[in-house]
Amino acid sequence: MAEAGIxxxxxxxxxxxxxxxxxxxxxxRVQKGExxxxxxxxxxxxxxxxxxxxxxxxxxxxxxxxxxxxxxRQSEQIKQNIGYMSQKFSLYDDLTVEENIRFFSGIYSVPKxxxxxxxxxxxxxxxxxxxxxxxxxxxxxxxxxxxALGCAVIHEPSVLFLDEPTSGVDPVSRRNFWKLIYxxxxxxxxxxxxxxxxxxxxxCGRLALIYRGKVIAEGTPAELKSRFMTxxxxxxxxxxxxxxxxxxxxAGMETAIFGSTLHAVVDDGRAAAxxxxxxxxxxxxxxxxxxxxxxxxxxxxxTLIETS
Length: 308
Prior knowledge:
The protein is α/β, with parallel strands linked by helices. The chain has helices spanning 46-53, 75-81, 97-107, 115-126, 141-152, 171-186, 198-201, 221-228, 241-250, 269-282, 297-307; strands at residues 6-17, 20-31, 35-39, 61-66, 69-70, 82-85, 159-163, 190-195, 206-211, 214-219, 232-238, 255-258, 261-266, 287-293. It folds into two domains: 6-220, Rossmann fold; 229-307, 2-Layer Sandwich (Alpha-Beta Plaits). It starts with 5 loop residues before the first strand and ends with a helix.
C-alpha cells in the first residue's frame, strides 16, 4: 500500500520483450495533486511504463501502486479508478461527439443519475456544446484532443495518465490543452504526462528524464537545470545554421539547432566564443551574436545523455 499523499509509487519496475529491455529498473514517486512529467525521446520506454502503471501491461519485474492499488495484483481496479488518454486520443471517429461521451460513460461505469451532468462537463471542457451531433472524424485535431481528455476524466478519476497527448497538435492547441491540465490539477487531480517536447516539460511541477529505459535524472525543472548543468550554454545567432553546425562539427564542436540559432554546451564560454568565431569566419559564415544564456531542459537532457 502506498503512503498517504502518494498517488503513484513504483520500485525497480522492469519490462522486457524477449532479449530487449524496454524499462530497466525504474523507481519513482508522484505526489497527489501534482503534474508529473515523464520526459524522453521516442523509444525511451515512456509508453511501456505508462501502460504498466495503467494496468494494461504486466511488469517483468519490480512493482508498485497507483491510486492505492497494486499494479500487479489489482490491475482491474486501477483501470476503473484512473483516467487514460493515449497518443491516438482513443476516440471512435464514426460516432458523434455525444455518442463518444455516452460510450465512455458506460466504459467507466458513471452512475446513470449523473451521466447527463458529466456529459455537459465534457462538452464544456472540449468547447463542443454546439457540435455535439457532429461526427468525431470531422473535428479539427485540437477539438479531438480536448474531447478525448474530457472522456478520460468523465468518471472524475483521482489520477490521470496522458501518453504523448499533444503529439501532432499545433502550438496554440497545445497551450490551450495545458490550461485544461492546470485546471484539473488545481482541483486535486494527479496528472502523469509523457512527452518528448522539451518545452512542455517546463509546465510540469516535477520531472523524470528517461533514456534507454532508465531514469537518468529527477526533480523540478529549475533543480534539473541548476544541478546538472555545470557547463555553459552559448547561443549563436547567424543566417546559415545548418552549414555552421557542419563547420563546427568538423572542428570537433557539437551544437544543436534551436529555431534560427545554434546552441553549444561548452566548458569555458569566453574561450569557446573566440574559437567559434574563428571556425565560422574561416568557413565564410557571418556570426551575428554569441552570448551565454540560461540552459533549457533540452540542453540538460543532451548533457545528461552525453555523460550517461
